[in-house]
Write a structure and sequence with these properties.
Chain lengths: 150, 402
């Protein structure tokens, strides 16, 4: 559905169609500063080595404050996906059909994201992925994933 | 607190569906009176009133937080009121709250009430609310994540790793509708559906079609819980059949689906997450899967029903799809499962799906389930869970203490 039909059908304003963006917290700010520079950073505990993604105030494994942000390889495999067809939030309706995916990072954590630059029919669980960064606003760049070209 | 120390003696319910003219307050008052009358007690016997949260619309919740309900229903000897909320798991946490109150001795009769009216909100308001509820504003919502999308990813992984087919998943929707057709208060109780109907219905979030997704609606239910001692006294006097709480088991995994604990994260074998909780409940009850006459499962989506059934011992893990497809969980089958049709066909009332299924569990064990009655049911396992599949709860109920 194109934006104008959508607006008319549901009596929506431009605001209703604005895509929701992450609002960084005190402890997630370095992650979003990283994506802005097209780097995927993971909060890693310097005491026990545990990676927290999403990041929290302190290490959720050993409760330590002693952490560093380590750049990830940007490689992952696709664990599972869905192709959204209807019934999504208004700002996402013009994008239909689109994919939501669970992506397993080489470093361990799983991430909820989307698959881009890939025909819907070619998406397969287990496929190799690499990260790209979508600069959705001056402040926010969202990590998304595309197939690794063989 | 021990096995069989507490019992439910009466239940109340109203028709589920879209009834915009029936307020959530009217629902609460009605189910409360129905439950107290069904229990054969006086409203003035109620010593504690527990309410579940209303999803969307703050007025009802605020009123409950400020002690509205006991006065409005005539429970003038009431001492304690509280709201217990943990999303779709509320029906389990509220039972445990009630057990704590009864154990304290402050009250010997607890009335539990749930009410929900989604029909007061426009489609736009509901879409907006459920676009964000259950998904993280920072990590999930920016990607267009929805509850249906979440469930669809889990279906994709479950099929891939367990060998379950989409036809078997559709068969759950079919079985739920069969049960709902035997339930006067179900939202969809007019016409049975076929596997073909389910597969041909509109694609919502591939691989899930519309008939694999639950429907929001208005509804409510209530029950009266008391000590086993008092239940037996009342039973002697007026002949109601107490239904005893025999065992519980719970586990918590995550807030965000991507952060699931290892036993949950491998979605083909997610029964490894659910099974220890079910086993805790069986063990406390001193019973096993073979003793269960009914499996009351609340997955809200058909493949979630299968994932949980894989864990409760009716069949080998990973084989629940075949069991459902063979009709064994349907009315007349060997393993009657989800006898009110739950969120898929009875209707999704926010935190209330578990309450409706709990009340149906009690009815079955009291022999009051009408056309849906499973003959001579003595013991059953009840299940619920909340959040983005964040937690799981099992309770064993029986009309006698083994």
């Amino acid at each position: 559905m194109d934006v104008n039909t959508l607006k008319e059908k549901f009596k929506l304003t431009d605001d209703d169609l604005k895509k929701p963006l992450p609002v960084p917290t005190k402890w997630s700010k370095p992650f979003w500063e990283g994506t802005k520079q097209h780097k995927l950073l993971l909060k890693t505990c310097k005491d026990c080595g545990h990676i927290d993604h999403p990041p929290y105030l302190y290490c959720t494994e050993c409760l330590s404050d002693n952490s560093e942000w380590v750049q990830a390889s940007g490689r992952a495999t696709l664990y599972a996906f869905a192709i959204n067809e209807v019934g999504v939030p208004f700002p996402f309706m013009p994008d239909l059909p689109y994919v939501t995916a669970l992506v397993d990072l080489k470093e361990g954590p799983r991430m909820l994201s989307t698959i881009v630059e890939c025909d819907l029919k070619d998406i397969k669980n287990g496929m190799e992925l690499e990260v790209i960064f979508d600069d959705v606003s001056p402040e926010i760049s969202l990590p998304k994933w595309k197939p690794v070209k063989k | 607190m021990g096995k069989g120390d507490f019992a439910i003696i009466g239940t109340g319910e109203v028709p589920h569906g879209m009834f915009p003219e029936r307020s959530e307050f009217e629902i609460a008052y009605t189910v409360a009176r129905n439950a107290v009358k069904d229990a054969g007690i006086d409203m003035k016997d109620v010593g504690a009133v527990l309410t579940a949260a209303h999803i969307m619309g703050a007025e009802y919740n605020t009123e409950m937080f400020f002690g509205h309900l006991p006065e409005a229903i005539g429970a003038r000897n009431n001492r304690i009121y509280a709201t217990t909320v943990s999303g779709g798991g509320s029906s389990s946490s509220i039972v445990k709250t009630a057990e704590g109150i009864l154990e304290s001795g402050e009250a010997d009769t607890v009335l539990v009430v749930h009410a929900q009216r989604f029909s007061q909100f426009s489609a736009n308001e509901q879409i907006k609310y459920f676009a964000h509820a259950g998904s993280s504003p920072e990590w999930e919502v920016p990607y267009g994540m929805t509850y249906n999308g979440l469930a669809a990813m889990m279906a994709n992984a479950y099929m891939e790793h367990s060998g379950t087919t989409i036809e078997q998943i559709a068969a759950v929707s079919v079985a739920c509708r069969k049960w709902a057709c035997l339930q006067p208060n179900a939202m969809f109780n007019k016409k049975e559906i076929t596997i073909e109907d389910v597969l041909k219905s509109k694609m919502v979030a591939a691989p899930l079609t519309a008939l694999m997704c639950n429907m929001l609606c208005d509804g409510g239910s209530a029950y009266v819980m008391t000590t086993a001692k008092k239940a037996r006294q009342i039973a002697k006097k007026i002949g109601v059949k107490p239904v005893y709480l025999l065992g519980h088991g719970s586990r918590y995994s995550h807030r965000f689906i991507a952060s699931a604990v290892p036993s949950f994260a491998d979605m083909g074998t997610m029964y490894k997450f659910f099974m220890p909780a079910a086993n805790d409940a069986y063990e406390q009850a001193g019973l096993g899967p073979k003793d269960m006459d009914i499996f009351e499962i609340y997955g809200a989506y058909p493949h979630l029903d299968l994932l949980i059934m894989d864990a409760v011992g009716a069949c080998e893990p990973g084989k629940s799809g075949a069991l459902v497809e063979a009709g064994e969980t349907s009315p007349g089958g060997k393993y009657p499962t989800t006898t009110n049709g739950e969120a898929l066909s009875f209707g999704h009332t926010g935190t209330g799906v578990g309450f409706a299924l709990f009340v149906e569990s009690v009815r079955q064990l009291q022999g009051k389930a009408g056309q849906a009655q499973v003959p001579d049911a003595k013991f059953l396992i009840f299940n619920c869970g909340g959040g983005a599949y964040s937690d799981v709860h099992f309770t064993i109920l029986g009309n006698k203490v083994p």
